[in-house]
Amino acid sequence: MTxxxxxxxxxxxxxxxxxxxxxxxxxxxxxRDHHGIVNPPVYRASTVLFPSVEAYQAARTHYGVTYGxxxxxxxxxxxxxxxxxxxxxxxxxLASGKTAVNLTLAALLEAGDHLLMVxxxxxxxxxxxxxxxxxxxxxxxxxxxxIGGDIENLxxxxxxxxxxxxxxxxxxxxQDVPSIVAKARARNVLSLIDNTWATPLFFKPLDLGVDISIxxxxxxxxxxxxxxxxxxxxxxxxxxxxxxxxxxxGAPAAPDVCWLALRGIRTLxxxxxxxxxSGIEIAQWLKARPEVSRVLHPAxxxxxxxxxxxxxxxxxxxxxxxxxxxxxxxxxxxxxxGMHLFGIGSSWGGFESLLIVTNPxxxxxxxxxxxxxxxLRIHIGLEDPADLIADLDAGFERLTAAG
Length: 403
Hints:
By secondary structure, this protein is of the alpha/beta class. It has helices at 20-26, 53-61, 73-85, 97-108, 123-135, 177-186, 199-202, 236-247, 255-265, 268-287, 306-312, 329-337, 385-402, and strands at residues 90-94, 114-118, 139-143, 159-165, 190-194, 212-216, 230-234, 292-296, 319-324, 354-358, 375-379. Strands 1-7-6-5-4-2-3 form a 7-stranded mixed beta sheet, with helices on both faces. Strands 8-9-11-10 form a 4-stranded antiparallel beta sheet, covered by helices on one side. The radius of gyration is 22 Å and the shape is globular.
């Protein structure tokens, strides 16, 4: 259970033994409170009125609806849903995934503190560490994503946080989460993870001892390439401290966006099953192509991180990387520019397929990228895999022709 009786619209009908496939359709919905209407309404609010001083003070003490920036019933329905799916205590909805990551770091770190950040983290997270946190007196050490329990050798007396992301951005290395978390807990250091790739359906990091799980709901939770939203889920020990500090920054999620994310979550199980199946099918097809040096996808048995993925994850999303055999960038551009079904654009997790050129070596320091050929990041959407394969096949013809 992730809420209490003082939380607006506390969940009262989703039994813990239900599967996630069922819970995504039931969590955060309270038709009896809304004239039997299936979907919760969108509560747009700044001012909230109370009948008495006592009621006003009670609401401020017990997670009540007090002011728009603190959350509306729509916000709480979304937070309740994600917290339950993550097996967490509570969640906190924020304006974007980047906001969720950066404000969590800013809320928990102070001048003189030391942060351990995985070397293959999301690019904006790295920049926040190198620029903003450094400017405020926080030291960051980037570590090899495959370090495992040896991370204990990097702890300093002032280490406060360990940040994980598995698989990592662009290069998709897997991390040994239980080993890293065990070392962090032994030093009383909090652990955080970016769980956007897997979603809480395929990976539940809090079950492995992680203190804070962060997801860009912009991606698979929303699922339709039309929202910006982040969500932070915590265990009970850290929640109130983090919530109070993040509230000071004033970056809440809009209730309309939370409603759209809830709508997306209703089909999350179905979409993720399709994303996974199509992603693996196309990854296997790419692996057999002569133009491809290697496919960076932890669900493939040939991937170095496959055993960790198999041990800790229930499934795989449809975002992965490929390294091409050495070729000119002109050839790569000819391939990518001519795609019909694959769009060129940032983000991922929506219904549409995407393909972008990447440069993982540009932002690695702890473990330099050893790739020899150009790299691409591919997101497999909900189109027919056969059509996507035909589009890629034509792309490889253009790549070969361009030399």
